[in-house]
Amino acid sequence: MKPAMASGPYRVPRQTEGWRAVTLAAAVHAILLLFLWVGVSWQSTAPTEVQAEIWDMTVQDAAPPAPPTPQPEPEAEPEPEPVRAVAPPIPTPAPPSPKEPDIALERLKAKQKLEQEKLEAAKQLKLKKEADEKLAKLEAKKLADKKEAEQKLKDAKEQAEKDKKKLAAEKLAKEKAEKAEKAAKDKAFAAEMSRITGNAAKGSTGTAEKSTGGRVDGGYQAAIRAKIKSNLIYGTVDDTLSATYQITQLPTGEIIGVRKTKSSGSAAYDSAIENAIAKSSPLPKKKDGTVEREFVADFNMKDMH
């Protein structure tokens, strides 16, 4: 027979195994914290939110007070069901880091394009500078060539003017010399004639009279022509050429004047005859030692070769 229960208010039996529940709860919390730490350390991005339910078995609702009636002896309290730990979700691998944002890529491309444009602009500027330098050198060369040509033309004009003045001076000097020579020859001729005339007045043989008049005999003219022919230099043979000259000489045979009275029509032949006459001075004399002061001679090409 069960002993009678003491009367009084109902009390919740004291839990004699509470330490076991506290220990189990602490272990569950430790496991949860371990899983959370591993998940956070594994992910390189923001950690995935993990939700967990924590059960605290230390607090239980108290039963309502029983009526003050005798209660049977309470049966042994069954052991509470152990708390099952809720396994945290398996963390998924972190996705690979995304590629460089498009805006950064665009900025990089824009920077590269800007650098390329700067290089191209510098290259174009260099080419333009080189072209300008070449053009400047070409213009400078053209200007220098123009100045040089103008200077050469100026020098040529000055030289031509100098040559012209020189020729004029030489011609004037030659004319003066010829006049002086002619005057000297005329003076010498006059002196010789005066001497001859004086000798004639004293009883000379009349050589002077013979020397100043009459036609030239054939032998005398042939001798004169032979000497002039020996000094003639003319390559072309043309039998139609013929020139006539009046020759004035001193009693010694020295030629003091040559005048062309008829041209052959060839300036070269006329010049050759004049040079031959000048080289033939003094001319041969007659057999009696006299000369003709003036005489006219024909110089036919057919007779001069």
Short descriptors:
305 residues, Fusion Protein Consisting Of Minor Coat Protein, Glycine Rich Linker, Tola, And A His Tag, Chain: A, Domain 2, mainly alpha, 3 strands, rod-shaped, single chain, disordered N terminus, three-stranded antiparallel β-sheet
A few lines on this structure:
By secondary structure, this protein is mainly α. The protein has helices at about 20-40, 100-200, 205-210, 220-230, 265-280, and strands at about 240-250, 255-260, 295-300.
Task: Give a structural overview.
The protein is mainly α and 305 residues long. Among the domains are: 16-58 and 77-96, no CATH class; 212-303, 2-Layer Sandwich (Fusion Protein Consisting Of Minor Coat Protein, Glycine Rich Linker, Tola, And A His Tag, Chain: A, Domain 2). The protein is built from 5 helices and 3 strands. It has a 3-stranded antiparallel β-sheet. It is rod-shaped and about 215 Å long. 8% of the residues are buried. Residues 1-6 and 199-216 have low confidence and may be disordered.
Query: How do the helices and strands follow one another from N- to C-terminus?
Result: HHHHEEHE
Give the second-level CATH assignment, the architecture of one domain: 2-Layer Sandwich
Mean pLDDT: 75
Straight-line distance between termini: 202 Å
User: Uncertain segments of ≥5 residues (pLDDT<50)?
Assistant: 1-6, 199-216
**Helical coverage, percent range:** 40-55%
Q: Describe the strand arrangement of the main beta sheet, using strand numbers.
A: 2-1-3
Tell me the total number of β-strands: 3
CATH topology of one domain: Fusion Protein Consisting Of Minor Coat Protein, Glycine Rich Linker, Tola, And A His Tag, Chain: A, Domain 2
CATH class of one domain, named Alpha Beta
Return the structural class. Answer: mainly alpha
The shape, in one word, is rod-shaped
Strand-residue proportion: 5-15%
